[in-house]
Specification:
This protein is mainly beta. The protein folds into 2 domains: 103 residues, no CATH class; 91 residues. 0% of the residues lie in helices and 37% in strands. It contains no helices and 17 strands. The protein has a 4-stranded antiparallel beta sheet, with no helix packed on it. Strands 5-6-7-8 form a 4-stranded antiparallel beta sheet, with no helix packed on it. Strands 9-10-11-12 form a 4-stranded antiparallel beta sheet, with no helix packed on it.
Length: 206
């Protein structure tokens, strides 16, 4: 069974039959019982009685545990992830962008840290906050910002505690709530977290 990651892609950029009430959904990467996937497909809800899936270009790197974030221009940022789910995977710092108008992925600047199980949140200024995640041995405190204009990642303030598999929610005031998750320690022990923190884009601090 495939594990896939889906994001809602802007209807204006995802096919002539999409409407504002039924955006196209991009599924990219994931795993089956035998391998990690680079393939991607689009679910088009307005095609047929119950919608349909159509193939689109494949990612440059097969990955799972990555994030997918729609940018203001309708392109999709794919960041990080791992080569497989278990048994010593390679954790990626690499990132790609999907262009719906061309139906293909291209490489973009790499993250400062390789990470999987992280969050990616589009901020009001158009940048993407990358937070949480783990590097294969420990949960990360470091966070970074992706700037679509320069196609690069830059460091921003660290979280107070390393965590992965947490949630990230944009608040009405433009700040981002990071909550829960799991803290993985270098000896592979860890604990489930009940703490939360808030990122302020104005100060760049949690």
């Amino acid at each position: 069974m495939a594990v896939v990651l889906a994001i809602v892609a802007g209807p204006a950029n995802c096919g002539s039959n999409a409407s504002s009430g039924a955006p196209t959904i991009l599924f990219a990467g994931g795993v089956t019982k035998k391998r990690t996937l680079a393939s991607a497909e689009l679910y088009q809800p307005n095609q047929g009685a119950s919608g349909s899936f159509v193939a689109t270009g494949a990612m440059k790197t097969a990955r799972v545990g990555h994030t997918a974030t729609e940018l203001e221009n309708g392109q999709v940022l794919i960041a990080g992830g791992a080569s497989k789910m278990f048994d010593g995977p390679k954790i990626f710092a690499s990132a790609e962008r999907y262009n719906p108008s061309k139906g293909r992925f291209s490489n973009t600047g790499a993250m400062l840290e390789a990470r999987s199980g992280h969050t990616a949140t589009l901020l009001a200024n158009g940048k993407v906050l990358i937070a949480c995640g783990e590097d294969g041995t420990t949960s990360l405190t470091d966070s970074e910002l992706y700037d679509p204009a320069s196609a690069t990642f830059a460091e921003t303030g660290p979280m107070s505690i390393g965590r992965d598999e947490c949630t990230a929610t944009m608040l009405a005031n433009g700040k981002v709530l990071i909550a829960g998750g799991y803290q993985l320690l270098p000896d592979f022990s860890g604990s489930v977290l009940d703490t939360a923190e808030i990122y302020d884009p104005a100060s760049g601090l949690f």
